[in-house]
Design a protein that fits this description.
Blueprint: H1 2-35, H2 60-73, E1 78-85, E2 91-97, E3 107-112, H3 120-136, H4 141-149, E4 150-155, H5 160-164, E5 191-192, E6 205-207, H6 209-214, E7 221-224, H7 233-245, E8 250-258, E9 262-264, H8 278-294, E10 298-299, H9 300-303, H10 315-323, E11 327-332, H11 349-365, H12 367-371
Parallel strand pairs: 3-4, 3-8, 5-7, 8-11, 9-10
Antiparallel strand pairs: 1-2, 2-4, 6-7, 9-11
The structure holds zinc ion.
Zinc ion (ZN) binds near residues 116, 119 and 257.
Length: about 400
């Protein structure tokens, strides 16, 4: 009998011991859940910014060298190729950034700059984004995810000849961002379809100060759109390249300029040649609203009325018309630096690069939403000090 009792005691005590151990395990597990410490959760490493200095701009040749350097430094992420040539025979470079080792199907996007040669910061913003993506790949999770799932195509200088002489127009005196086949050459879109007079004389633009004074509805100036749509080698190159991209899940387009300080979506002046769906309008508006709320840039669809900023034959309108993907005109820099039809002030380079980066990163983290015309509500993670406090 005594033996039996002691057996029962042992059984009872060991059950208690097991229960205590088991409860302890549960407590441990709950503790680790609360503190969020399990080793399998990978923390995002803060991204770093490119080491750029104010005043160090890249002309066509410096841009060419910079792209070649990226190719040497990041052979598994970078491919550099020419999409065509300018009037004077300069290559129009494109850099494709993606993790080549990841061969899954990817979405693609195109960001370009320098279609107006005097708008330097548009090209600089393209290079800055390139640098940022490359230096943060494999350390910052957001950037790594982007390059694993996306082919980012960047054309920093669409108008190499214009960039070299700091001119808005190309070598033929044509405004390339009026040369696309959409409402081409219409006066109300600030365009005159002149081309070169007698095949020789360049007439980049005409001013109509007097006429504008008497008839305020008449544009103050008209820029030369070329005699016909896609008359220029630079716009032909971009057109053909976009058509190639269309075969690889082309998902959004950004055409960068200076210095109106806005982001805008199609349509720039006339009514679209097709019915715009509610969803397309909603998504374009959502992006613009995000930019207005999260950066210092303004809504370009609202800031300019009537003739002050009406433009026909633009790359953005044409891209949207052809491919029906979210398309934007992004005007970097403050209005105070407006270079107009030539010249202009360039200043605070690093500030403007940091101001611009969030817009690109926002679009990139939302590429799948944009591709499917779904609400782009993913917030990009950004380094400290981005975007910076607006300049006074
Ligand atoms: Zn421009």
């Amino acid at each position: 009998m005594k033996k039996k009792i002691s057996h029962l005691k042992v059984l009872f005590l060991s059950s208690i011991l097991l229960l205590v151990m088991f409860t302890g395990c549960i407590e441990e597990e709950q503790k680790s859940k609360k503190t969020g410490e399990p080793p399998e959760i990978k923390m995002d490493h803060p991204s770093i910014l490119p080491d750029w200095k104010d005043g160090e701009y890249h002309d066509y040749y410096e841009t060419t060298d910079e792209l070649a350097d990226f190719k040497v430094k990041y052979p598994d992420l970078v491919n550099v190729f020419s999409i065509g040539k300018s009037v004077l025979g300069k290559d129009i470079w494109c850099i494709r950034i993606t993790n080549e080792k990841n061969t899954q199907a990817k979405l693609s996007c195109l960001i370009d700059g320098g279609i107006h040669g005097c708008e330097w910061e548009a090209g600089e913003a393209c290079l800055y984004l390139t640098d940022y993506l490359l230096i943060n790949f494999d350390s910052n999770e957001t950037v790594t995810d982007i390059l694993n799932t996306t082919e980012v195509f960047i054309v920093p200088l669409l108008n190499p000849d214009g960039r070299q002489i700091d001119d808005r127009f190309n070598e033929n005196g044509i405004d390339l961002n009026r040369n696309f086949d959409v409402d081409f050459g219409r006066i109300r879109g600030h365009s005159m379809p002149l081309g070169k007079l007698f095949g020789r004389i360049k007439i980049p633009y005409l001013r109509f100060d007097r006429l504008h004074k008497w008839f305020p509805n008449f544009p103050l100036f008209l820029t030369n759109s070329g005699r016909r749509a896609f008359s220029e080698p630079e716009t032909q190159a971009l057109r053909d390249f976009m058509r190639e991209l269309d075969n690889s899940d082309f998902s959004f387009y950004v055409n960068c300029h200076t210095a109106v300080h806005t982001i805008s979506s199609p349509w720039h002046v006339f009514k679209p040649p097709f019915e715009l769906s509610n969803q397309e309008e909603k998504i374009h508006d959502y992006v613009i609203e995000w930019v207005v709320e999260n950066t210092e840039y303004e809504d370009g669809d609202m800031s300019f009325e009537g003739y002050s900023y009406a433009a026909s034959g633009t790359a953005t309108d044409w891209c949207f018309k052809e491919f029906r993907i979210p398309s934007f005109t992004f005007e970097i820099l403050s209005k105070a630096y407006e270079p107009g039809a030539g010249g202009g002030k360039h200043d605070n380079l690093v500030h403007w690069m940091k101001t611009t980066l969030p817009v690109f990163m926002y679009l990139l983290v939302n590429i799948e939403n944009l591709h499917n015309w779904k609400t782009p509500d993913i917030q990009p993670s950004l380094p400290d000090g981005v975007p910076p406090t607006p300049l006074q």
